[in-house]
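FAQ

Q: What does a record look like?
A: Structure on top, sequence underneath. For example:
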């Protein structure tokens, strides 16, 4: 029986090599005419015939059988590695004997099958493939379906490349997302201030501009005529840190001059007030523009609950009034309001503003 199985395997491997050869010849626009003997070949495995629906044939003394059915009958999986242009035979996923490379290849094949099923689903129903596609605004009709599918596949690979290259920039971890189409591309760069606030704030304007320029250059290498715009967001509070676009030559322009001023002021306030109450660590950030500014003072209420609760309303009011005055000195015409919040659940602990007459409006929660 062992010799019998080896013989079958030998047939399969011979066929695999020939099949790959045929694919390569066909790709170079060559054709080969074969004289085949059909209908007189049967294939048995472990005493059972498995060739009833296979139509094996013989060419020049070599027997050819469908590779997938034979391999699967022996408990293996067969799939096409499109990247490397090769057929791969491996134990099935349930066999417990797959190595990492084999698992990766099997996953690629399963993903390919999913894409084919998604294509068929779309052609039958017109339904977008995934929620992510729908959210990104990529809708399809029968006329532009294939072009858009290729665009999605291309932009997804580019997005992955950008994440690999710039996902960690000078100790700051970033997420990068691309939206739009091949003519207009929007770039979203996200940074989580819970973990990388100080690292981001320590970047110079030149370093940030260099980062954005490098990202846009990579995009324009792939899509030379694309118009690019984007923004950097702080995801914890869902606020914009800066926005940018590119000139016709691809040079990045940071558009939010007021945001730069706001960021500089934020850094100054954070340095001045982080230890205002000596037994608590405070973090300050700003949102808005020249016309409207909100300031937020974050603290870990679970850790400093007792210290915070001991503070008088007068001390908290004075603290928030000082921050208000510093902001007003930079943005005299802005409408300003401020909050002290728990840094983890966002719960308001105090609020401060002034009405049109300059009277203080303060509330402690």
């Amino acid at each position: 029986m062992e010799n019998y199985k080896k013989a079958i395997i030998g047939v399969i491997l011979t066929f695999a090599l020939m099949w790959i050869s045929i694919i390569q010849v066909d790709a170079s626009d060559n054709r080969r005419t074969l004289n085949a003997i059909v209908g007189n070949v049967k294939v048995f495995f472990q005493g059972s015939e498995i060739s009833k629906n296979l139509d094996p044939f013989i060419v020049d003394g070599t027997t050819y059988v469908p590779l997938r059915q034979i391999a699967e009958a022996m408990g293996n999986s067969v799939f096409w590695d499109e990247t490397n242009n090769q057929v791969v035979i491996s134990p099935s996923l349930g066999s417990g004997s797959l190595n990492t490379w084999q698992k990766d290849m099997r996953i690629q094949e399963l993903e390919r099958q999913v894409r084919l099923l998604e294509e068929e689903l779309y052609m039958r129903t017109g339904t977008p493939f995934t929620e992510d596609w729908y959210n990104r605004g990529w809708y399809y009709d029968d006329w532009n379906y294939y072009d858009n599918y290729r665009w999605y596949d291309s932009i997804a690979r580019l997005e992955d490349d950008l994440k690999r290259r710039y996902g960690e920039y000078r100790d700051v971890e970033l997420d990068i997302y691309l939206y739009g189409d091949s003519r207009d591309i929007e770039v979203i760069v996200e940074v989580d201030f819970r973990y990388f606030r100080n690292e981001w704030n320590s970047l110079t304007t030149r370093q940030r501009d260099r980062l954005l320029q490098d990202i846009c250059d990579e995009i324009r290498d792939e899509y030379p005529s694309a118009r690019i715009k984007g923004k950097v967001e702080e995801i914890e509070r869902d606020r914009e840190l800066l926005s940018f676009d590119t000139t016709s030559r691809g040079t990045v322009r940071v558009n939010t001059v007021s945001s730069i001023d706001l960021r500089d002021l934020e850094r100054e306030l954070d340095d001045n007030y982080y230890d205002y109450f000596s037994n608590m660590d405070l973090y300050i950030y700003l949102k808005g523009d020249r016309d409207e500014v909100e300031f937020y003072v974050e603290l870990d209420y679970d850790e400093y609950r007792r210290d915070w609760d001991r503070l008088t309303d007068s001390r908290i009011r004075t603290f928030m009034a000082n921050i208000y005055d510093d902001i007003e000195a930079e943005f005299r015409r802005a409408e300003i309001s401020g909050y002290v919040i728990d840094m983890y659940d966002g719960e308001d602990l105090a609020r401060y503003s002034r009405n049109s007459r300059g009277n203080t409006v303060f509330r402690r929660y």
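Q: Is there anything notable about this one?
A: The first helix runs from residue 2 to 27.
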